[in-house]
Design goal:
Helix 8 runs antiparallel to helix 9 (331-363) and helix 13 packs across helix 14 (514-528). By secondary structure, the protein is an alpha+beta fold. Strand 8 (179-181) and strand 9 (184-187) form a beta hairpin. The longest helix is centred in the middle third of the chain and has 48 residues, at 243-290. It contains 20 helices and 15 strands. It has five domains: 5-17 and 265-407, Multidrug efflux transporter AcrB transmembrane domain (Multidrug efflux transporter AcrB transmembrane fold), CATH 1.20.1640.10; 50-106, Alpha-Beta Plaits; 118-220, Gyrase A, domain 2, CATH 3.30.1360; 420-438 and 545-708, Multidrug efflux transporter AcrB transmembrane domain (Multidrug efflux transporter AcrB transmembrane fold, Up-down Bundle); 461-540, Alpha-Beta Plaits. The strands form three sheets. The chain has an eight-stranded antiparallel beta sheet. Strands 5-4-8-9 form a four-stranded antiparallel beta sheet. It has a three-stranded antiparallel beta sheet with strand order 6-7-10.
Length: 710
């Protein structure tokens, strides 16, 4: 890209002004309502709390199957309000629904509606279908008989109801079938033809919003159990009020260190990357607002991974520019060639991770979906800032006079390191770590009954209701009460919910033993003068249901297969794909071993942590494989061992620098964050180190071993 001086000045001015505007928007917003400011971003229960509504079944002793079915359907219902909403069982016949980002339970109840009985009846009131006969209801757009678009509600019936409904509709064409919800007719469609396939549509909708509302009522009306509202609670931030300010401080420090690092090692291009990264942050904050994405701790993990990939893209580009300068090219040619040669590695690495994010967003639920949204957003924005903004900035600086080599970092000639000669040692280290992990899993199982230290999100726990003599603020609960409870549970995963218009607070912890419950009561009485007779406890189910766990596992497996296919397609060799997937498995198992050995709490963030490591690892692997592919074409007379060793050596600086910059971001979170944040950051640190090790020491060696098997 050849740019005139005047154009260079204009480009710099536009980018700087755009960055300044996004910074102002994030800090202050627009107008008196401060629209678009960072504080308007929707935050999840873990970061900002929300509202909790407790329902009780009208049936005193519902079956476990009916409760599980009701919880699952309610989860699907409330996800239309927020992907981060949680639904779980409390006691024998109560269900809690937690929705982030709001404080007004009445607003939620109005939108959610009271889950009640639904039926499809004849005009004389005889029930043709009950709500449980309807498997699903979704708004759709289709073409009518005239070819015009119309909005409908598509119904899918259960197998048991299909035959009887087919018989009824065949004999009653032209008659109406009122849909009755809690005694009120909410729709009155007519039978236009026999419905024999177990699916049909309700037409006559005014717009998509009406169809969506009707479909939601039909879905929630299909619950096996009728529910009545019991109470509503204000939910405090699960990670504590200090989680956000400390995380922001950590992010700012980490970002500053990255910028200093980039300028020191890459000079003027490093400064350009700092501007581009600042623009990246502004764009991410603005888009989170624009798309109304709920931000949680797993979502922050997705953004951290996006920052890492944005830095990585710049490092790859600048390393290529340095290599071209060392090869004797002038600055202009080096810049042009550097961007061109870096393109394939950046695109392949980002698209591979984007594929995984797309699968997770489509199939995942809850925090998995939230992670996928922020990850996908981060990837797209990081590619834009690296391949467009950084490119324009570097060329603009060149155009206005930065044409001397001293402004750019040359690559140092590094002696090729024989990594493959040590592959037996590397493989042995990995096997020992992985086998050691399985040993710890077995030891944990035999001593505690669980292979990992599962938190209440996975295992359920104890809900303890405490009535204080005075109204306890959220800040008081975080600063004074939670530390007392943590001394008893030895677990930072403590959630507090204030019951609206009372002094009552519900604390949710891991399952407490009888001795721990007594210690809890004594601590409340001693420290806060609580009447222990008013303390009650209930058992609560996991907030991550078995269906959500299954969806997460299936999503990851499908994403892995899709990544394997893409790498196979791009590199024209299944062994590249196979070794990349084995490296992913290696990193996941090593981090799992760390969870088992260190007994780090396994909760909502565990899934996001593992997914972050997968995305980070695959990107590092792609960079090395891209160089192997390039060198195989250029080093035709060299044997494959030399090609692999040369490729790893050439990308070693990139591997070290990228790992360091990502490490800095996460390490700052660990050092400055609250205890629950540290439990999330520590495994990520292990994953970053492991990913750097596997990309340099394992993946190339794996590919070479596979290549020998012709």
């Amino acid at each position: 890209m050849q740019m005139k001086k005047s154009k260079g000045i204009a480009v710099l001015l536009i980018i700087v002004l755009a960055t300044a505007f996004l910074g102002y928007l994030s800090a202050f917003g627009l107008g008196s309502s401060q629209y678009g400011s960072a504080k308007d971003i929707k935050l999840g229960l873990d970061l900002a709390g929300g509202v909790s509504i407790t329902y009780q079944t009208t049936e005193a002793h519902p079956s476990a199957e009916d409760m599980a079915d009701t919880i699952f359907k309610l989860q699907k219902r409330v996800e239309t309000y927020s992907t981060e909403a949680a639904v779980y069982q409390e006691g024998e016949n109560r269900i809690n629904i937690e929705i982030p980002g709001v404080t007004d339970a009445n607003e939620i109840l109005e939108e959610l509606g009271k889950p009640g009985s639904l039926s499809i009846q004849t005009e004389e009131g005889e029930v043709v279908l009950s709500g449980t006969d309807i498997k699903d209801a979704q708004p759709q757009t289709q073409q009518d008989e005239m070819g015009n678009k119309e909005v409908v509600v598509a119904l899918t019936l259960t197998d048991e109801a299909t035959e009887s409904f087919a018989e009824y509709t065949s004999n009653n064409i032209g008659k109406r079938l009122p849909i009755v919800y809690d005694g009120e007719v909410i729709s009155n469609p007519a039978i236009q033809s026999a419905i024999t396939g177990g699916s049909c549509v309700i037409n006559g909708m005014a717009d998509y919003e009406e169809a969506s509302e009707l479909a939601s009522i039909i879905r929630i009306g299909g619950l096996k159990l009728e529910l009545e509202e019991l109470r509503s609670n204000i939910v405090s931030a699960q990670l504590g009020e200090e989680a956000i300010p400390t995380s922001l401080k950590a992010a700012a420090i980490g970002f500053a260190i990255i910028c200093i690092f980039m300028i020191i090692f890459y000079k003027l291009p490093g400064f350009a990357s700092c501007i581009a990264l600042t623009l990246y942050v502004g764009l991410i904050l603005g888009l989170l607002n624009a798309f109304q994405i709920t931000l949680t701790l797993p979502g922050i993990a997705g953004i951290i991974l996006g920052v890492g990939m944005a830095v990585d893209a710049n490092v790859i580009i600048f390393a290529r520019i340095g290599e071209e300068l060392s090869a004797g090219k002038n600055v202009r040619s080096a810049i042009k060639s550097g961007f061109e040669k870096a393109l394939s590695a950046i695109v392949d690495g980002n698209i591979t991770t984007l594929i995984a994010a797309a699968v997770l967003a489509f199939m995942g639920t809850g925090t998995v979906k939230g992670f996928a949204y922020t990850l996908a957003l981060g990837i797209v924005v990081s590619m834009f800032t690296a391949l467009v903004i950084t490119k324009y900035l570097v060329n603009a600086f060149y155009a206005i006079g930065a044409q001397n080599e001293k402004f750019y970092a040359k690559a140092k000639n590094r002696k090729t390191i024989n990594f493959l000669a040590k592959k037996t040692v590397f493989f042995a280290i990995s096997i020992i770590l992985i086998v050691g992990g399985f040993v710890f899993l077995g030891v944990n199982k035999s001593t505690t009954g669980n292979v990992l230290n599962f938190s209440l999100e996975f295992m359920g726990g104890t809900s303890t209701s405490v009535t204080f003599k005075d109204d306890m603020s959220i800040a008081d609960l975080d600063a004074k009460v939670k530390p007392v409870i943590e001394e008893i549970t030895n677990d930072a995963n403590i959630q507090a919910q204030k019951v609206t218009n009372t002094n009552q607070v519900v604390f949710k912890t891991r399952t407490l033993s009888l001795d721990e419950r007594e210690a809890f009561n004594a601590a409340m009485e001693e420290n806060f003068d609580v009447d222990v007779d008013l303390i009650t406890t209930e058992t609560i189910s996991s907030t991550i249901s078995s269906e959500m766990q299954r969806d997460a596992i299936v999503s990851v497996l499908i994403a892995t297969v899709c990544m394997l296919i893409y790498i196979w397609f791009r590199f024209k060799d299944i062994r590249f794909a196979g070794s990349a997937v084995l490296a992913l498995l290696h990193d996941v198992l090593v981090v799992l071993a760390f969870y088992a050995a260190a007994k780090v709490s396994v909760g909502n963030t565990f899934i996001a942590c593992m997914l972050t490591i997968v995305g980070y690892s695959i990107n590092a692997t792609i960079v090395i494989f891209d160089r192997v592919r390039e060198n195989m074409a250029e080093m035709k007379k060299a044997d494959l061992d030399e090609v692999v060793n040369t490729s790893i050596t050439q990308t070693l600086t990139r591997s070290i620098y990228t790992s360091f910059t990502t490490f800095v971001m996460v390490a700052a979170l660990y050092i400055l964050g609250v205890s629950s944040i540290r439990e999330f950051a520590l495994p990520l640190i292990v994953g970053i180190v492991c990913g750097a090790y596997s990309s340099v020491c394992i993946t190339g060696a794996l590919w070479r071993v596979m290549k020998k098997i012709e």
